[in-house]
Amino acid sequence: MCMQKVYHTKLFYLALLFIAAFIPLSSKAASLEYASYSAIDLPSQTAVISYGGLGNKSYYTCPLATLTCTFYSNTTTPVFPAPPATSVSNPYSVIHDTRVSYRGVTANGAFVYYYQYANSLHPTRSYNIVNTATGKTYWTQSSVTYWDLLTEENRLFASSPDSKTLLYLDDRSGYSTLYKVDLTKKLSNTAMKGTALFTRTYTIADFIFIDSHTILFIANRDNPTIWNLYRYDLTSKVLTKVANQVSYSEPMRKMTDAILFLQTKGNAVVPAVYSISNKTVSYFTLPQTSGIESVSNPYLVEKYGSIESVLLKPTVTSKTVSHPLIIWLHGGPYRDVSPTIHSYLSYGVYDWALEEARRNGAIVLKIDYHGSYGEGRAFAESLQGKAGVQDVADIMTALTGIKKTLGSTYTLGGTYLVGNSYGGYLALKGLVAHPSSFTGALSINGVTDWPTLLTKIVDSIFNVYFKGLPTVKNSKLYEQADIVDHLDNLTNQKMLLIQAQADTDIDPHQADFFNDVATSKGKNVQVIKIPDENHVFYKPSSITTICNSLLNFVGLTPNTPDRCQYQ
């Protein structure tokens, strides 16, 4: 995974320009639009789709026969007639284990399958198949020394319509990939391990059977930051790309002759339909207010060392104009960056703000530091014992690379670290670790003191980075991740903390504590408090505040009055 040679992969995404013809284009970025499949009614072959941005979701009924959606309500989903009641036994009664998740049953009822996740008290995870006739269980298991990353996925199992094949997602080879179990053969624990469908190293995020011999799956096969939809024939082993820039925010859904999925287009995640019989992709027609906006400036996918990144360049290229450089650090850290808006609305709003910064003259580099999603288990687990060290080194690798990439084309102004949640911590940590390299750091709902946070939460997954709660034995791991003790390294570098006051993940006291200490040391720090918001922002006014604060922080003035106004 760790490549020392720096190389650049420039991918100009024409897919960003294929805006659906049924939706009017907007001349300004007013908001984001995100779709979600709220319900499916199989008898009428109708989908219920929620669609909208922050604070303005609406529900639509969308028949597959016409692909034309009708507004239903701003608050509730329609209630379809319940299927006739049938008197059947509970197939899951054969399960007698605990920690059961992702359970399912084959179409013929012959097998029940389920997953037993690992946690701090039970470090072993297992995939299980139960023969419902005999009650015999077959399994494959493995130990987890980190947290069980597979619990982050939408789906871990899929069984074929003819009940002959079971597929499951496992990262035992290093990447989350698919394994096939033949249910027609005599099972044993050896057979339960299955056969890997693919040998290439990439991450599969979701998968579903089209028919008994064909599947669709979402994967970052072309690049770790890019998720596309693929069709794979289990018999012929033919692989075909079906759609670009697919969202993995929710599982695909199956109807009689269609697979429903989500796709990113411009500033929207729209509902899409794959026709099983025609092997084509079409789209629902949705009434929209703000419209979908095309992206006139292509995004570039770059790699610096082992660090994948997405580069957003301003439209005007001039050596006489100074452009601030923003290095964006996502949260998680088991999340990733996206060439366009993120699959999750909670992250998409930050992409929206970063795009506004780019429109107003900033250069933006979004990076996937060690610990990020989509680049394999080893990459994700590499922060264990190295929080605040390995990820900071990744920032510096990316900074060196971007300066070489753009140094001859742009005059770079100030360099700023900006991030949310764990990324907010990392922005401050990067600043105090390398103060001469950065002009400032902006932290949104970020951690400022790990011992205080983790001692209060106790069972946080972030304990894994420090090998437990603070003790004398692991004190050095906490010390190397510390920010406050290194504030004396700063001179006049700027620090801005934006903190939601109802945050139940990161106690607002984290921002207050940091502000008090930094102020007492005479450092250049400011705190913006956003009331009545939790760790994820839901108010358009909050995103407007964040966007304007970002532009002001990096020295940009919005070039038109309607910029940075999230509606």
Could you characterize the architecture of this molecule?
The protein has 567 residues and is of the alpha+beta class. It has 2 domains: 33-80 and 93-283, Dipeptidylpeptidase IV, N-terminal domain (Methanol Dehydrogenase, Chain A, 8 Propeller), CATH 2.140.10; 308-553, Rossmann fold, CATH 3.40.50.1820. It has 10 helices and 28 strands. Strands 1, 2, 3, 4, 17, 18, 19 and 20 form an 8-stranded mixed β-sheet that branches. Strands 21-22-24-23-25-26-27-28 form an 8-stranded mixed β-sheet, with helices on both faces. A 4-stranded antiparallel β-sheet has the order 5-6-7-8. A hairpin with a 2-residue loop joins strand 18 and strand 19. Helix 2 packs parallel to helix 10. The two termini are 42 Å apart.
Distinctive features:
single chain; 567 residues; alpha+beta; Methanol Dehydrogenase, Chain A; Rossmann fold; eight-stranded mixed β-sheet; disordered N terminus
Set down the secondary structure blueprint:
Blueprint lengths: L32 E9 L4 E7 L5 E6 L6 E4 L26 E6 L5 E6 L7 E8 L5 E7 L13 E3 L5 E6 L6 E6 L6 H4 L2 E2 L7 E8 L2 E10 L2 E8 L5 E5 L9 E3 L2 E8 L2 E8 L5 E3 L16 E5 L2 E6 L9 E8 L15 H15 L3 E6 L8 H5 L8 H17 L4 E10 L1 H12 L6 E5 L5 H8 L5 H4 L8 H7 L12 E7 L8 H12 L3 E7 L9 H14 L14
Parallel strand pairs: 1-19, 23-24, 23-25, 25-26, 26-27, 27-28
Antiparallel strand pairs: 1-2, 2-3, 3-4, 5-6, 6-7, 7-8, 9-10, 10-11, 11-12, 13-14, 14-15, 15-16, 17-18, 18-19, 19-20, 21-22, 22-24
